[in-house]
C-alpha cells in the first residue's frame, strides 16, 4: 500500500506540530495550512487521503473546507477539530458530510483511532465490493436511492437513525452501512433494546465487575466494549427507559463507559447506528424519549421504505426468498396470476411477512407451483376460496384473540403430529397420508419445531 497523505489545517503552530508528528508516526505524509484559502489551494492542486481542519480559522471556518471537499473530492474523509464542549458544531459538520470530529484538547488515542478508520475507509472504497451474505433486493427507484445513500453514509462516522416499519429491513441496512465503511474489519454488534430487562440493562450495555451485585459471579464485558473498533446497532431504541437513556447519552458523548462496580472509565471507539419502528419524534414530544439523546443519535436519518411502496420489487424478492428457503431442494414457482395477487396485498409486516407467507405456501403447495390458495393471505383468503366475489366478507380463520398465523400453525402441528404417530414417525409415509410432498413435510417439520 502506498504511503497515505493528509492535509492538516490549523492556525495554531503547536497544534499543527502535534497533529503532524502524531500522523507521521502512523506513516502518514502531512501537508499543513493555516487558513481556509491555503487549505482550498492545496486541496485543488493535490490528492489527499485525509483532511483534518480546525473549526475556527482566521479567514473563515472548517465548514467551508467540508463543503469544498464535498464539491471537489467527495471520497476524501474530512474531520473537524472543535473547541472543548462545542459538540453541536461537530455534529453539524457531520450532517454536512464530515467524516468525524475531535475536540480540543485533542485526545491522541482518539485521534489515531479516527485516522486509522478514515484511511481504512479510503482504501476500502478503492477495492471491488467484498463478498457478503447481505444485500438489498429490488430494482425500484426507492431501492436504488437507498443503496446510494447507504454508500454515502458508510464513508462517515456520523450516528445514523434508521426509521422504518417492522420487517422492512432496518438491521440489514445497518449491516450494509457497517460492511461498506471503514469499520468493516471490526465487530457488528446488534442489540434489541426492548428485549433486555430494565434491571439488567446497565450491566448488558457497560459490563460489570465481579461482586458488584448479587449474581455477579465474574467480570462481564458489555455490549459497548464488545463493539469496540466496530459498530453498535441499537434496534428498537425507543424502548429504552429514561434512566438508561441518560447513561447512554453520557457514554456516547464521552466515548467511554464505566462498568457496574468499577471506578475506572474505559474508552470505547464505536459507531452508533439505531433504529425503531416507532415515531421517535412523537415520543420526544410526549416526553418518553430524551430530546438530547434523540439529537445525538439522529445526526442523519435514513428512512427504509415499506414493501407496499415498492411492489415492483416483489417478484425479485420472491425469487430470492424462495431460493434461500429451498436451499436444499427444488424451488417452486409462482404463476403470473398468483404473483399479481401477491402484489395487491398490503404487507403490514413487510419483507419479514413476505418470507413467512412464502414459507407457509411451500408447505401447503402440492406441486412445483405455488397457487393463490397456498398463500393464505389474511384479508385475501376468502376471496381465493370463493372466487372474485368482492362483496363477500372474509372468512374468519382466527379463534379468540389468537393471531391467524399462530392459529394455522397449531392446526398444522396437530395434524402432522397425529399423522407421524400413526405412521410410526416415518416422514415419507406421513407426507403421503397428509397428501403433501416430502419436501413440504420437511419444511413443515422445521417451521413448526417438530424435527
CATH superfamily label of the largest domain: P-loop containing nucleotide triphosphate hydrolases
Helicity, as a percent range: 40-55%
| Biggest β-sheet description | 5 strands, parallel
Mean pLDDT: 86
Q: How many structural units, i.e. domains? A: 3
Total DSSP E strands? 16
What low-confidence regions span 5 or more consecutive residues with pLDDT below 50? 380-398
Q: What is the CATH-assigned architecture of the largest domain?
A: 3-Layer(aba) Sandwich
Determine the CATH topology of the largest domain.
Answer: Rossmann fold
Separation of the first and last Cα atoms: 52 Å
The fraction of residues in strands falls at 5-15%
| CA-based shape | elongated
CATH class of the largest domain: Alpha Beta
Judged by helices, strands and strand pairing, the structural class is alpha/beta
Q: What's the tally of helices? A: 20
How would you write the strand order of the largest sheet? Answer: 2-1-3-6-7
Features:
five-stranded parallel sheet, 451 residues, Rossmann fold, 16 strands, single chain, 3 domains, Helicase, Ruva Protein, domain 3, 20 helices, alpha/beta
Describe the fold and architecture:
45% of the residues lie in helices and 14% in strands. The protein has three domains: 123 residues, 3-Layer(aba) Sandwich (Rossmann fold); 163 residues, Rossmann fold; 139 residues, Orthogonal Bundle (Helicase, Ruva Protein, domain 3), CATH 1.10.8.60. The protein has a five-stranded parallel beta sheet, with helices on both faces. Helix 13 crosses helix 15. It is built from 20 helices and 16 strands. It is an alpha/beta fold. The radius of gyration is 27 Å and the shape is elongated.
